[in-house]
């Protein structure tokens, strides 16, 4: 998900621009940084004679965990062991429509009913109680409004939300970010409950909001659809209980929110920071299992042992059941928001998993920073007068084309200070021999309608050898000429 040609180029050690060209010739127009489908990547792989297997970061991580005999996922165990868990809710909507006010209103009601004497801890999430059909039901709110956080977490593979509350100001109506938020929720397959807010305002027109959203497919129940709309005022408190009820009813109707509380805890870190006195502090939401003091945990590439847990009322607790947000103390470093966390056998396993993840992250980082080097650098050096000669190795799909290319290159007018020299040429794929010569002599390899062998590509990546691919002669000439004149435009 979300891989771009630049990502692929890094992985296989070729130039992203050439991948853009290859795809263009296959009839697809994409930019280097745009995300492309797995299918496109595979087609490209076939064309380049790479066997591309798209492995999502989640799969990669799952494999890592499996190698430690840890299973992370949806498997909740025996049907008999399952118990209902509260829904986790994210509040989304257009700016100024009242998301923060709504979250504040519920957080305050939580304090009133709590026992901590009115001191709330802002820990990133909190729980409120709703009375539905004479039953006390809990709801967990993620205390950050907006879909940026939601999307960021989802991008990391975290399923942190069960239900989205879409806040729409009744006086303002549906706005661009309303639709955007709605689309994020739909894409994540998260059911939506609509809070039609600010109904206390004279200009409020809740019926219009219903009509507008119906056009986008969110049809109110009273119109025969399956979306709950509730008129509320975060200011006066009107409708807030009804909104909680609508959330519970939607969860009951659309979702099977159950978890086995009797297994090692797993979940997601929704917030984390470094506290001067307490060290790394992370708020986690348990998805399944129960988290206990003393558990050895991994969260992203952080690990440690649960030293203390603090709930949303600032109370120290000893165990956290599913959907209860808790601040966890005892991690050795700060995980990222959206990182999954899990309890493992012991500290040693926790450390090993964390270290492996850390190493993988570093490797990815390095791949990024080492990419696309030589030609640009060479041109820089040419400009600075540090290098006087641009060395090229030409590989093409036929003797004729290689000759034509060399011929055209020789006609490039270069200044007195710099020159261009072809040190090797040949027909066929770019080989390891080509790459090692290029590496030794700091030459750039030009592939004309040819590709490197997988080993050559790998080697080029390791050796920082620049491979450039062209399928039209004048493009090759243009780029090299421009480069020699110190005018190479960035390709991206
Ligand atoms: P956000 O950007 O969606 O988080 O919006 P805020 O919660 O910051 O609210 C934006 C403004 O609308 C603030 O001035 C709030 O006081 C006001 N506001 C929020 N909810 C209501 C409401 O129900 N009625 C009225 N009259 N004003 C509200």
Automatic annotation (TrEMBL):
Keyword Ribosomal protein attributed: no
A molecular function GO annotation: GTPase activity
Domain Tr-type G: 84-255
Keywords: Cytoplasm, GTP-binding, Initiation factor, Nucleotide-binding, Protein biosynthesis
Primary residence: cytoplasm
Signal peptide: none
Top-rank taxon, per record: Bacteria
Binding positions (GTP): 93-100, 143-147, 197-200
Subcellular location: Cytoplasm
A cellular-component GO term for this protein: cytosol
Keyword Lipoprotein carried by entry: no
Family label: Belongs to the TRAFAC class translation factor GTPase superfamily. Classic translation factor GTPase family. IF-2 subfamily.
Entry function: One of the essential components for the initiation of protein synthesis. Protects formylmethionyl-tRNA from spontaneous hydrolysis and promotes its binding to the 30S ribosomal subunits. Also involved in the hydrolysis of GTP during the formation of the 70S ribosomal complex.
Protein name per the record: Translation initiation factor IF-2
Full-protein positions shown: 23 to 514 of 612
């Amino acid at each position: 998900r979300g891989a771009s040609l630049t990502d692929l180029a890094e992985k296989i050690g070729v130039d992203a621009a050439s991948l853009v060209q290859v795809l263009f010739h296959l009839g697809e127009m994409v930019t280097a940084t745009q995300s492309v489908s797995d299918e496109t990547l595979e087609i490209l792989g076939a064309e380049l004679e790479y066997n591309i297997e798209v492995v999502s970061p989640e799969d990669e991580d799952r494999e890592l965990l499996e190698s430690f005999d840890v299973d992370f996922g949806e498997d909740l165990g025996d049907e008999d062991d399952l118990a209902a868990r509260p829904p986790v809710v994210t509040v989304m909507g257009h700016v100024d429509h009242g998301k923060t006010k709504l979250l504040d209103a519920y957080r305050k009601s939580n304090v009133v009913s709590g026992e901590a004497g009115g001191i709330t801890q802002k820990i990133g999430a909190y729980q409120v109680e709703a009375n539905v059909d004479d039953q006390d039901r809990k709801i967990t709110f993620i205390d950050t409004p907006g879909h940026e956080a939601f999307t960021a977490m989802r991008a990391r593979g975290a399923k942190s939300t069960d239900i989205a509350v879409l806040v729409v100001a009744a006086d303002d109506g549906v706005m661009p970010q309303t639709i955007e938020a709605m689309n994020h929720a739909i894409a994540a397959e998260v059911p939506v409950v609509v809070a039609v807010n600010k109904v206390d305002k004279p200009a409020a027109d809740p019926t219009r909001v219903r009509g507008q959203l119906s056009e986008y497919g969110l049809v109110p129940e009273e119109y025969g659809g399956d979306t709950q709309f509730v008129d509320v005022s975060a200011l006066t408190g009107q409708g807030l209980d009804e909104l909680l009820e609508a959330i519970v009813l939607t969860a009951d109707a659309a979702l099977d929110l159950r978890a086995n509380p009797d297994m090692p805890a797993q979940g997601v870190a929704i917030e984390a920071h470094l506290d001067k006195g307490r060290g790394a502090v992370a708020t986690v939401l348990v998805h399944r299992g129960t988290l206990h003091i003393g558990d050895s945990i991994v969260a992203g590439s952080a690990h440690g042992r649960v030293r203390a847990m603090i709930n949303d009322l600032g109370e120290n607790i000893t165990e956290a059941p599913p959907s209860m947000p808790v601040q966890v103390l005892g991690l050795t470093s700060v995980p990222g928001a959206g990182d999954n966390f899990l309890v493992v056998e012991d500290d040693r396993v926790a450390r090993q998993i964390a270290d492996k993840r850390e190493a993988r992250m570093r490797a990815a980082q390095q791949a990024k920073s080492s990419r696309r080097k030589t030609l640009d650098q060479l041109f820089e050096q040419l400009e600075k007068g540090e290098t006087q000669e641009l060395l090229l190795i030409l590989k093409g799909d036929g003797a004729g084309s290689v000759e034509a290319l060399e011929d055209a290159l020789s006609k490039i007018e270069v200044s007195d200070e710099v020159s261009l020299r072809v040190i090797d040429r040949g027909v066929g794929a770019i080989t390891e021999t080509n790459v090692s010569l290029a590496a030794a002599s700091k030459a750039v390899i030009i592939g004309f309608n040819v590709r490197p062998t997988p080993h050559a590509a790998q080697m080029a990546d390791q050796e920082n050898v620049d491979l450039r691919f062209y399928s039209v002669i004048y493009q090759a000439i243009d780029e090299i000429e421009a480069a020699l004149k110190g005018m190479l435009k960035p390709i991206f």
